Amino acid sequence: MYCVIQKITNKKPNPYGAYKELIVDTFSYSMNGKLSDTKYTFHYRGERFYRPILDAFKISIHESYREDGKVKKKQWVICTMGYYSLIDSWVGDHYMSSVLQDKLQAMDITEEQLQDMIYEKLQPIIDQVAAEFESTEEFKTDQKHKEIIEIYHQAKKDFDQLYGNDTYEYCFDVFGELRCPEYLERLKAQKKAQQEYQERSYQSSNQSNYNYEDYSSYYANVPSTYGEEDKARLKLIYRTLSKKFHPDVTKDDGEIMKLINKLKDQWGI
User: Do the strands 70-82 and 39-48 form a parallel or antiparallel pair, or are they unpaired?
Assistant: First the structure.
């Protein structure tokens, strides 16, 4: 039993070449007439590279045997892979497992044995095609885009660890260009305030005369980085609490309302 790979010609070209362009996209939304911060995303767009080569490879398994003194053959067609499919996929993507099972049973081999048999013949062809493809403009452009995206993901990971999840995309685009310096400065100010607060908390924890009012007045000055959607929700919370705990309603000394107003200042609404 052995694998046969027959070179044939497709009638139509492969239309799924890599995209030629990687661009920056933006996302924002409006709530209660106010526009949210802009998020800088990316996507591929426009024209794809043309793939002119129509070569394809028909893969089949053959078995020769003798019957009544005569040589006979059995043949099982496994699949056909286009020239560019050798680069973009593997043989398992081109056959249906449910259909293959009957053929494997007839051949009396496992799927793993089948693939080993195929790739013994197919791998040299894959290597040749890959070497040819790596000299094309499509390959060079696609590699450049992948490198840009890989650098972007690493930069995003590092930045988000420092300033919080999903903050990088509000400052930088996929090419690493700073798009919103104002948002970055807000993040830096918040980070600095948090660090100062942590230092103050540590120092205060070692003192018996810890002053809650000092902490409250300090934290109220921490710049708010809430988005417009979160601010709208916080305003709703503030209005609900102020209606319920207003001194005219509770008939108390107003201390609860003072705390609610401090929260309002801290939230920046």
Answer: unpaired
Give the Cα separation of 36 and 190 in Å (integer): 19
Q: Which amino acid is at 160?
A: D
Which amino acid appears at position 37 of this protein? D
**Pairwise CA distance, residues 28 & 119, whole Å:** 49
Query: CA dist 145 to 21, 56, 61, 115, Å?
Result: 8, 27, 39, 32
- Please list the alpha-helical segments (H only) found in 61-96: 85-88
| Residues in a beta bridge with 251 | none
pTM (predicted TM-score): 0.64
Q: Where are the domains of the chain?
A: 2-16+51-135, 226-269
CA 184 to each of CA 6, 25, 28, 148: distance values in angstroms, whole numbers, following the listed order: 59, 19, 17, 21
**Residue holding tokens 């104002």?**
182
Residues in contact with 64: Cβ distance below 8 Å, sequence separation at least 6, in sequence order:
71, 72, 73
Residue 149 corresponds to which tokens in the numbers above? 């995206």
Give the sign of the dihedral formed by CA 214, CA 217, CA 223, CA 224.
Answer: positive
Write out pLDDT tens, residues 178-225: 999 999 999 999 999 999 888 887 777 666 444 444 444 444 445 566
Name residue 183's amino acid: Y
Q: Which two tokens stand for residue 4?
A: 């046969």
Give the span between the Cα atoms of 58 and 30, in whole angstroms.
55
